[in-house]
Amino acid sequence: MVKKWWSEFRSMLDDRTLLLSWLALALLVLGLHVYAELRLVQQRELAQRETLTDRLSVVRYQLESTLTNNLSLVNGLAAFISAYPEYTPLQFETYARTIMARESSLVNLAVAPDLVVTHVYPLAGNEAVIGLDYRQQMDQRDAVLRVVRGGAMVIAGPVNLVQGGVAFIGRAPVYVEDGGGQRLWGIVSAPILADAIYEQAGLNNPTPGMQLAIRGNDGFTSSEPFWGDSVVFNRNDAVIVPIIAGGSRWELASIPTRPAVSGAEISALRAASVLIFLLLSVFLILRHRHALQNQELRNIIFSNERFLRAVENVSRVGGWCWTGSVFTELSARTCEMMELPDDRNEVDMDTFCHTLDRTSQQSLLHYLNSALQLGHRLDQELEVHRKDGEVLWFQIKAEVAQLDGNERVLLGAVQDVTQQKKVDQLVEYQANYDMLTELPNRSLFIDRLENALLQAQRRSTRIAVLFIDLDNFKSVNDNLGHDAGDELLVEAARRIKSCVRAEDTVARHSGDEFVALLVDVFSTSVVSRVADRMVANMRKPFRIDERQIYCSVSIGVSFYPDDGDDADTLVIKADQAMYEVKKSGRNTWQFYTVAMQLESEQKHRLFNELVAAIDNDELEVFYQPVVDADSGYVSGCEALVRWQREDGNWVTPGAFIAIAEERGLINRIDLLVLRKSLKFIRELNGQLGRAVSLSVNVSPRLLHMRDDDAQDWLRELQMSHNVAVTIEITERVLVDETAGISKVLADIDSAGVRIAIDDFGTGYSGLSYFSRFPVSSVKIDRSFVKNLESNATETTLVETILLMASKLGIKVVAEGVETESQAAFLRNHRCDYLQGYHISPPLPGDDFSEFVRRNTSVVAEIH
């Protein structure tokens, strides 16, 4: 925090403008402080001077009053003598005693006729004064002569008294009548104690805060102070007032003992100035920061304005203001969108919409006025048409604003969202339509089907769903390529759609499957005619890449409410009906029946049970012996899977193997059979001390190696070195040969595993198999062996297969041998191995082990 503050302070010091402002503020505050401090001192000094003057006036008055009172007694004595110049000593003493009793400040009273002291009161202590000739006393002569010459009382002193102490001497001339005139009789004098005068005037206890001094010895004001410090008169701030008494003049001065302004007040004033400076500095800094922020805001606003102008151009957004009659504050982008000149800042509605048709203008006017009158926020997408036919989409947003004078306007923005609208429409189209055939996709079809069901429920009508699958479409892709397949799908979609009404729907369901929705179906004959037209149209040849191609369709039909009351059920049942068509030969159509549903439910139930059986390891492996045709010796066996339910009933292989092939479980079953049989044969060979070979059936699906089970099966097979293994594949695998399957067969052969063609002769048998694939043996199908010697054709076929295999060095296993005559025929025609119920049915593992042991003993006894 401190580091941040210091960094900010350093940056402010680097700001020349702020630094100069701060220095100017410092000088201003300093000048104001100096002026305020001087003014304060002057005012306080003036007030102090006035106070001192008032106090000095009191002191002066007290001094003058005290002196005057004492001098009046001296004047009274002079008047007494002037009236009674021939007074007696007793009279003088009596009068003097009376005076002295009245005023304690008088030291004594003395009379000096012809300037020689003759009487003094009190006499005690003052005897030395008698006979004192003032004309002979140099220290008093001038003062006495001044009284005589002046003819008025004069106060001299203060002087040090002979008897001790300091006193002022009051002297008054005495004149007596002499022949109609007056002559100087002499003088009277009286010392007045200075300390008594000071005490009565209050000089000994002056008012606090002031220092006093008095000067004017013998009435001369230029003399040194006789009371107080001389510094008082030397100070410039001294207040001086005159003291006039008895014809003499003194000066009373005073200076303050305390400064007019205390140090605390000066400190407070300076602290206040510093505080004011700091506050003003803070204000200056805040104002400076505010100015910087305002500048930054102005820069931001300027930048935002440029940014908004750029955004306006990029986002195609324009601003405007609608007053109810005209547009104002039109931005450049708005003018560009509406094809208006840039300098048009105020236009009416007709001018604003001069490129639009009348309907678009009225729509815009309606939305704007409604929002302005109701005070509502406007957010509207508006489709407008230019007079040249171009269609545009505008996004209009506005709010009501209150301007000065209570005028209400609509402030808003307009954005050209035409491109976005086109993109949205394209996205919506792609989400609901198939891009290849331009038909509705599955999602849109289901939505339309659900809506049609609601309508049919309300109106009690029927609807039909047709599930359409192209026959043998895969061969087109495989032989002509996917481009040709796409062309075929497009033409097929066109032909199917041409068979229905405009209110009906044809959609692409997936791959080569289509679905059709027929609404308001009043009889099944209508649907029959539509299905017949579809089948007939699709029977016609397609012309693809200058080739003539045939591709028929299989169609299944379901009805609402007969076969279901929801979309999924109707589609599923139509699909089931279509598969029945596939099984019955394709190229036709069929209505859904209850039997189909029962069969589907049974298959579904059996599938779930089969999954559980595989998971719970309930499938068993049986072994059917394969014997040498000449010796009868058990050379090997074929591993066959069997399934016994928990209730003890057996499920025939024909029932669950087909479902496993159809539902993708066959790879798991093949892997299970291989693992169990390999383990069993290894253990058996170890017990017998001789080798029994193993044959296992392989599904074509497994050889595509598309899942983990297939990969595990291949790894298991490649590791079976201590067991002679033969895998049995059907001719269909070789017919549908791919590069991947060829590689898998080559890998199996290189691992030492033999390959046999199962059910040989029932498919597309060809000699090329033996040159293209590493085939080591073939198995004659049981259907040929069954009719040996009873059907000449099949007998000839078996003979031909045996002869061909002999020439090629291929071993032959005959399946389905059920009689001795069949076995004898096969032995006579040099068949290598026999397998069938004549030898042994498929046996559980323990029974097969016992069969091999017995067989070994019997064969050994025979030979």
Low-confidence stretches: none
Radius of gyration of CA atoms, rounded to a whole number: 72 Å
Span between termini: 108 Å
Q: What is the count of helical runs?
A: 27
Shape summary: elongated
Beta-strand content estimate = 15-25%
Helix share, percent: 40-55%
Q: Order of strands across the widest beta sheet? A: 23-24-26-27-28-29-30-31
Q: Compute the average pLDDT.
A: 83
Largest sheet: 8 strands, mixed, barrel
Q: Number of DSSP strands?
A: 31
| SS-based class | alpha+beta
Describe this structure in words.
The chain is of the alpha+beta class and 863 residues long. It is built from 27 helices and 31 strands. The strands form 6 sheets. Strands 23-24-26-27-28-29-30-31 form an 8-stranded mixed β-barrel, surrounded by 4 helices. Helix 2 (16-83) packs across helix 5 (194-201), helix 17 crosses helix 18 and helix 19 (666-688) runs parallel beside helix 20. The protein starts with a helix and ends with a helix.
In short, what is this structure?
With 863 residues, this protein is α+β, with helices and mostly antiparallel strands.
Set out the fold topology.
Blueprint: H1 2-13, H2 16-83, H3 89-102, E1 109-113, E2 119-121, H4 138-150, E3 154-160, E4 166-178, E5 181-193, H5 194-201, E6 210-215, E7 225-228, H6 231-234, E8 239-245, E9 248-256, H7 263-315, E10 317-322, E11 326-328, H8 332-337, E12 346-348, H9 349-352, H10 358-374, E13 378-385, E14 391-402, E15 408-416, H11 418-432, H12 442-459, E16 462-470, H13 473-480, H14 482-497, E17 505-510, E18 513-521, H15 524-539, E19 542-544, E20 547-549, E21 553-560, H16 567-583, E22 589-591, H17 594-615, E23 619-628, E24 634-644, E25 650-651, H18 653-663, H19 666-688, E26 693-697, H20 708-718, E27 725-730, H21 731-735, H22 739-750, E28 754-760, H23 768-772, E29 777-780, H24 782-786, H25 792-808, E30 811-814, H26 820-828, E31 833-834, H27 845-862
Parallel strand pairs: 21-22, 24-26, 26-27, 27-28, 28-29, 29-30, 30-31
Antiparallel strand pairs: 1-2, 1-5, 3-4, 4-5, 6-7, 6-9, 8-9, 10-11, 10-15, 11-12, 13-14, 14-15, 16-18, 16-21, 17-18, 19-20, 23-24, 23-31, 24-25
Helix pairs in contact: 2-5, 2-7, 13-14, 17-18, 19-20
